Amino acid sequence: QVQLVEPGGGSVQAGGSLRLSCAASGSVYSYNCMGWFRQAPGKEREGVASITSDGRTNYADSVKGRFTISRDNDKRTLSLKMNSLKPEDTAMYYCAAVRGGNSCPAGYRAFPYWGQGTQVTVSS
Which of 76, 86, 101, 107 has an alpha carbon 20 to 30 Å from 29's alpha carbon atom? Predict the structure, then answer.
């Protein structure tokens, strides 16, 4: 059974930094794509960043240059380093994974495996 667990999250002032992590059960080598998504109250879940098993990354325009996604296949972890945080980054953040294919799919609905979510709050 696939399990993605996300400790961490937290609150920070605008301009600050946070690092999210996601621990996966089993081998992450089988997850072609892993990603971070976020959902603010009243808004649809949106993609933040994704990374393939061979390290290709993709970022939402709103976080480019501020966020960095990484994965450690040996340690079975996915991370998101968030710098220069803004109040509009406030949301519940989820890690997600999908097997198969050779690139990351578009849209959160294509990801079958999800963490429980962790809250990130950025105050102005």
Answer: 107
Element (H, E) at 59: strand 57-59
* pLDDT tens-digit map of 89-114: 999 999 999 987 788 998 999 999 99
Compute the distance between CA of residue 117 and CA of residue 47 in angstroms, rounded to an integer: 14
Tokens of 65: 């240059």
Q: Which two tokens stand for residue 112?
A: 């079958």
pLDDT digits (tens, 9 = 90+) for 35-89: 999 999 999 999 999 999 889 999 999 999 999 999 988 888 999 999 999 999 9
Of 108, 38, 32, 114, the C-alpha closest to 73 is: 32
52-58 contacts, C-beta under 8 A, 24 or more apart:
52/102, 52/103, 52/104, 53/28, 53/29, 56/103, 56/104, 58/104
